[in-house]
Design brief:
Elongation Factor Tu (Ef-tu), domain 3, tRNA-binding, catalytic activity, acting on a protein, BirA Bifunctional Protein, domain 2, alpha+beta
Length: 880
Amino acid sequence: MKKLDSSQIRAMYLEFFKQHGHTIEPSASLVPKDDPSLLWINSGVATMKKYFDGSVVPKNHRLTSSQKSIRTNDIENVGKTARHHTLFEMLGNFSVGDYFKKEAITWAFELLTSPEWFGWDKEKLYMTVYPEDTDAKKFWQEAGVAADHLIDMDDNFWDIGQGPSGPDTEIFYDRGEKYDNLAPDDPENYPGGENERYLEVWNIVFSQFNHKPDDTYEPLPRKNIDTGMGLERVVSIFEDAPTNFETDLFMPIIEKTQSLSDGKKYGENAQDDIDFKIIADHARAITFAIGDGALPSNVGRGYVIRRLIRRAIVSGHRLGIKDDFLYQLVPVVGEIMKSYYPEVLEQKDYLQKVIHSEEKRFNETLSDGLQLLGELMDNLKKTNQKTVEGKDAFKLYDTYGFPLEMTKEYLEDAGFSVDETGFKAEMQKQKERARNARGNDKSMGVQRDLLIDIKTPSEYVGYSQLEVDDAKLLDIIVDEKLVDQAGAGEAEVIFDKTPFYAEMGGQVADQGTIVDEDGNLCAKVTDVQHAPNGQNLHTVEVITSLSKDHQYKLSVDRKFHALVEHNHTATHLLDQSLRNVLGDHTQQAGSLVEPNYLRFDFTHFGSVTKEDLQKVEDLVNEEIFKAEPVTTVETDQETGKKMGAIALFDSKYGDKVRVVSAGDYSVEFCGGNHVSNTSQIGLFKIVSESGVGAGVRRIEAVTSKAAFDYLNNEEALLKQVADQVKTIQVKEVPNKVAQLQEQIKDLQQKQDKLESKIASQQANSVFDDVKEVNGNKIITGVLNVSGMDQLRQLADTWRSKNLSDVLVLGTQSGEKANLIVAVSDEKVKDGMKAGDIIKSISKEINGGGGGRPNMAQAGGSKPEGLPKAMEAAVTWLENF
């Protein structure tokens, strides 16, 4: 066996397919772009969907990649099995309607067995095939695989519902007898069975059918190849590692964790090994996920990151690591992956900051949460029960930050379970936001063959002209059919040249008109999109008629276009200003450039202060007022990068790129339309800033006349306020408002004093009415005070005067009811708890509450139940 490390294996795989005509696709962001069906990029093919469904035709129909991926459907198994991971790399080669079974199989065998490449012993390789796929069997044998190394498997058919499907073939490596974990005659001891000896390393899918809604299968017009080879598994074979974790992809992380632990060593204790593996796996996943723009939160991707961080921290505690440690593993991950993912080390400081902040937040509550969990299990043991109540599991989640899954894992390890139904009921009561941000699942679409077949060339000339007098109409599509003429109604058309911009990069499509040679309005352009082969596909509302091969005058709505240009250039200035103020870690996460406003989404850890937002706005306007020239250069990617151009992390650029520069301030790759000088933008004004997801902020802004109108409206509102507060000049409004606030504050203090006096008078009569119940003295009363603050003050007075053992007071505040219960310190020592009393009596006011043993409070929606709550308190004391 050759001695290759993980970096060499990855590079060799990609180089092999490059030599066989494939284009190497870079590893895309883990955060899916324009795919609501995915929470994460979870495979190599997930980034190729646009090619396989025909929405985009690739320049090269042969593609290969090493794609980082995340799967989170079985997090609880990570660390407990040999090969479960949250983050993994999938090596793959893909054919989009180009080569098929023979080439895919022949090349796979060559890569695995050729001495020039992997050089594996072919006798150690076994292939499973779909029983009816005789072609696959034939091609494997032609490649050099013995018949007794081919195994029929009924499960070898890839099908995820409606859409592309087909048979697949899987490749297994025989690791030898030393990995036998089953008896020789065990029915699972074969390639494809559940065993440790035969390791699946590669799956090749032959996508050749369309699974139709009626559950029938028809041949696809273009057959595709989709393969997946797990890098971690392949490395384990080259390094003869028992599991994926004893490889160069994980061991440096485990060794660093060992050095931070309380003398724990990997390989000495089974439970410790699980914790080492959990930490190593999760450290990789959170490092890459945060690096790609996701941030810890309580929903969607952020919830997954938070769960992984907390699960790793708990494992660290079990290894005796009491201090924050997870952030220290980021540089280790970066060193392991730097050959293919240098950005990890480049973002090291930012990644550590985010993870360390989350660690500190969780560690503050972890000990208390674990103590509560221990008490819950002790109580269950005393009563011979095995299930923790849902409300207790919810408290661990809501108060101490324990995800339900983590609580379940902890309980299962000790032989307990949790009432998940009860937990969900508590979640509903608290109206917690849903944790899962997944959109509706959908299968991969089938190619729109009509558009794929249209390859007539079309030129976009809108960078230099907004009118074309002699555009020839090449193609007309009506009701998914090519026609020679379109009458009144909707149609899709392609011209040999067009000034209409096709929607891309956040910039909306141009609108305008189509006029015939006689000056008659024939159609209105309502939308423009890119066809799969790159042409600008116009959606039009036909007024009279359009005919193929005729010439037309195409005119873009100049006012609409100019306003879009203003806003688009403003987003470039905004992007750079955000980096200058907040830091280089900010990345564009999406944008929308309309004529009347712009929207810009960006990644950022934490909120943006008003001061920083003002700095950003000032910087943008400063560049506008400088009247800097906006220039565009068409060049290649490498030259563009040397010019300092910023590229979006999820964008794909062609061989030729446009680099747009606003003076020396902003330099970006961009195919959109822009002003020729920043002064044309006129004015920039931020309208709002908010959070729109885990670690994603959104700025909405206006420019030009819209900004002027916005400020005019703001001034009109300020003048209205000036009239209301009776000032002559607008500039006097702040001082006048401050004076009014002082007056309100003074009146509020006087009101508070008056209410306190009234409350004291009421309390005197209530405090005099002491009842003795079951050997305990209690005072109860429903008072007419302003709210809970007044009740707390009275409780403090009661305690200072030692008037009774128990105090129960209530009041109505609007349509709400408030209750407070106080218990003397002596009675607390006897086991009496204010929280127990409040829980018992708060149901009378349709409420709930809690607190410390010596004081608790509750709120409810039924103030008329307050007298009954007082009676219930007496009843509770009778039964104490």
